[in-house]
Amino acid sequence: MKRSRPPIETYRLERHRSLRDWFKVVLIVQMLAALFVVLPATAQKSEKQANKLYNEGKILMDNGDVKAAIARFDGAWAAFKHPLIIKKRAEAHKLLFQYEESIADYQTYLTVAKRIKSTEKEAVLAPIATMKEMLSKPVQVSLTTGASGVRIKVDGGSVLRTPITISTTPGKHNIAIVDERYMSMSKERRVFAGKPDQVLKLQAIPKTGSVVFITDRDSFNNVQVLLDSVVINLAPQELDRQRMDARQLVIGEHKLLCSSPGLPSYYTSFTVTEGEISEVSCDFASVSSGLLRDTWGWVTLSSGLVGVVAGSAFLISYGVDQDTAESSNKELVTSKDTAGAILLGLGAVLSVSSYFVFTRHRKVAASSKSQPVFFATPLKDGGFVSATLRF
């Protein structure tokens, strides 16, 4: 029986499939060949880039720019894992007192560098041991907030006031501002082992209120105003007015001293409340009137004391004269007893009256919220010498 041939369409389809399979095989072979060529070239390029960054890092490190050097070593290590790169980065971290990072890099170096002499290994293990010991010792650090007397807490401990120097362990610590006068704030700061003169800074942002200073004088010309012992520098336009521009002050208590040539100085304290506007006056008139009342009180008291002393002297003298007259059998003719009694009585009245003068002064001062009489002399450095009289 004669064998039949397959249709021409079937033959062409099988031939097409065979060519397509051969084409795939050839393509895969070409891709593999290209891969064997590209991979070594890529590795060589990465090694060259790492070597470039490594050398740049060494130069920066020699010039003292250790932070920039570490950035170069980071790039070099990411490009090519060579032991010398990680070892050099460990040395750089050590220079910056970043002992945790330095120890980790040294340990990586010992893992990556498979062929290493015992002397080289000991040269790496020695600084690791030293740094671990330093990490276990406390460190002296200073804490600052940009303002004095700010209350803070370190790691939730007891309240401290800045600036202050404390002893603490190396590592990260939480510093929180817990002062009602300042915005609540909490930041993490790192303490480095073995690093001298460390200062941890946290900028305190004050809560403020507005204060307007006024005066009972015609203007602030020839008036010096000290706020918390610091002279207020007035703008030119404020000198000819009775009101200063509003000033933002930290909330809480403040002290004000106003002085002007020929007038007693005025002193007061006031409290600033957050978000509120307050007016504080340089009230020279209240100090002057207070001095007048005090002067009258002292005059009354001193006059009364003089009367009591003089009256007593007259009466004592009268008693002596009377004894003398009796011993000599003479008649005593004198008005010392009368004068002494009058002076003694008048002195007693004036002394008692001075008490009521001073008492009235206190009541008037309390009702008008005036301050104690305050004498002060401003100093060139912004401070002042002062004296307060209270009765």
In order across it, which strands form the biggest sheet? 3-2-5-6
The tally of helices reads 8
Major β-sheet annotation: 4 strands, antiparallel
Q: How much is the average pLDDT?
A: 81
What's the CATH architecture of the largest domain?
Alpha Horseshoe
Enter the CATH topology name of the largest domain.
Answer: Serine Threonine Protein Phosphatase 5, Tetratricopeptide repeat
How would you describe this structure to a colleague?
The structure is a single chain. The protein has eight helices and 16 strands. It is of the alpha+beta class and 391 residues long. The protein has four domains: 8-135, Alpha Horseshoe (Serine Threonine Protein Phosphatase 5, Tetratricopeptide repeat); 139-201, no CATH class; 208-283, Immunoglobulin-like, CATH 2.60.40.10; 289-369. The strands form five sheets. A four-stranded antiparallel β-sheet has the order 3-2-5-6, with no helix packed on it. The protein has a four-stranded antiparallel β-sheet with strand order 10-9-12-13. Strands 4-1-7 form a three-stranded mixed β-sheet, with no helix packed on it. A hairpin with a 7-residue loop joins strand 5 (171-177) and strand 6. Helix 3 runs antiparallel to helix 4 (99-112) and helix 7 runs antiparallel to helix 8. The longest helix is centred in the first third of the chain and has 55 residues, at 8-62. The relative contact order is 0.06. The model is unreliable at 366-380 and 387-391 (pLDDT under 50).
